[in-house]
Amino acid sequence: MNKHVVTDGTVGKALDILDIVVAFGRAVRFTEVLDVSPYPKATLHRILQSLTNQGMLAYDDDRQVYVPGMRLVRIARHAWNQSSLGPIAKPFLETLANDVGETVHLAQMENGRVVFIEKRVPERGFQTIARPGRRSPAHCTGVGKAMLAFMDDERHAAALDRQVYERFTPTTHAGPETLLPELDRIRIDGIAYDREEHEQGIISIAAPIFGGLDRVIGAISIVTSTFRMSQDDLDRFRPALLRTATQIGSEAAVWPFPLAQ
């Protein structure tokens, strides 16, 4: 977890700390938050106290840890039902995962980063580390590149500006000079791949999801391990993947909620 500064006043600082706490995925101590917080100790303590007072976080006195509060859970549940592709896509993802026998991911884009929304693992399917709510870079994931390739010019430029091109494996894109030509190929082919770019040994084939007015609103991928199959083997899933992306897009055609931003 890297320190970063959000300069959007008190509300921005509070949301920044809330993001940090939730990103741990477990109960977290003050010192752990302080280690990755961009704010000094006194400021962080004040923000955490405010979030706790408002029910966005809860503090366990016995263990001296912070966890998401019930108010946050309630807001998140309502937001999930109203603003996520998850409820619409869920039955289609289930069918796809069972048909191909591999793990299926659904993702959307937030501030240039991939946010995993849903995940389906069929019986004997390969288990990935991605989980709903997890954020990953866009430049080195199949779903990320599928969305980047089909964004309109304004959102495309904004998302690219946020890529930091962190190198995870030898095949990770190190900069726009290699990423942009691949995005051009994805626009022609309609399919994106993760060629062990984010995790060594993990490969995927991904397709964008289009909503009304052909706007990209998300992406789905079929993910597996190189121990199970080769990159070329993934191509046999192309028809089922594209069909599922089209089905989800048709259901979401009048979806009025956030785009892949």
Description:
- It is a single chain.
- By secondary structure, this protein is α+β, with helices and mostly antiparallel strands.
- The protein folds into two domains: 67 residues, Orthogonal Bundle (Arc Repressor Mutant, subunit A); 168 residues, Beta-Lactamase (2-Layer Sandwich).
- Helix content is 42%, strand content 19%.
- The strands form two sheets. It has a six-stranded antiparallel beta sheet. A two-stranded antiparallel sheet has the order 1-2.
- A hairpin with a 6-residue loop joins strand 6 and strand 7.
- The longest helix has 15 residues.
- It is globular.
- The two termini are 22 Å apart.
- The mean pLDDT is 89.
Chart the SSEs and their pairings.
Elements: H1 9-23, H2 30-36, H3 41-53, E1 57-60, E2 65-68, H4 70-83, H5 86-100, E3 103-110, E4 113-120, E5 135-137, H6 142-150, H7 153-161, H8 176-189, E6 192-195, E7 202-210, E8 216-225, H9 238-251
Antiparallel strand pairs: 1-2, 3-4, 3-8, 4-5, 6-7, 7-8
